[in-house]
């Protein structure tokens, strides 16, 4: 087995899951109102603001809580601060059988830069 760094894991995850921009995420949310947006940041990060309507499930407890908010056939977009942790989280959901899961490139920072709606 070869040793892998965090960046190796993120790079590999991004080859297995869809990555959407903040603007694409906004369009998807409009076209598919049932889309579940998951903020996988830690509570102290999410307390600074979240995407309007997002469900906060920190990455460390994602596997045990995702089924409370999304079925495996539901469209799910995950985000974190910059898009790396959410790529790992999206890959995990893919492994769990979620069929339509994506990570938001650039994360919450990109969402804010694109003037997306934010809950304070």
Summarize this structure briefly.
By secondary structure, the protein is an alpha/beta fold. 40% of the residues lie in helices and 19% in strands. Helix 1 (6-16) crosses helix 5.
For the record, the count of structural domains works out to: 1
Predict the CATH topology.
Oxidized Rhodanese, domain 1
Overall mean confidence score, pLDDT? 97
Spatial order of the strands forming the largest sheet: 1-6-5-2-4
How does this structure look, described?
With 120 residues, the protein is α/β, with parallel strands linked by helices. It has one domain: Rhodanese-like domain (Oxidized Rhodanese, domain 1). It contains 6 helices and 7 strands; from the N terminus they run H-E-H-E-H-E-E-H-E-H-E-H-E. The protein has helices spanning 6-16, 22-31, 43-46, 62-65, 84-95, 107-113; strands at 18-20, 36-39, 50-51, 55-56, 75-79, 100-104, 118-119. A 5-stranded parallel β-sheet has the order 1-6-5-2-4, with helices on both faces. It has a two-stranded antiparallel ribbon with strand order 3-7. Strand 5, helix 5 (84-95) and strand 6 (100-104) form a beta-alpha-beta unit. Helix 1 (6-16) packs across helix 5. It is globular and about 45 Å long. The model has no long low-confidence stretch (mean pLDDT 97).
Jot down its keywords.
globular, 6 helices, single chain, two-stranded antiparallel ribbon, Oxidized Rhodanese, domain 1, 120 residues
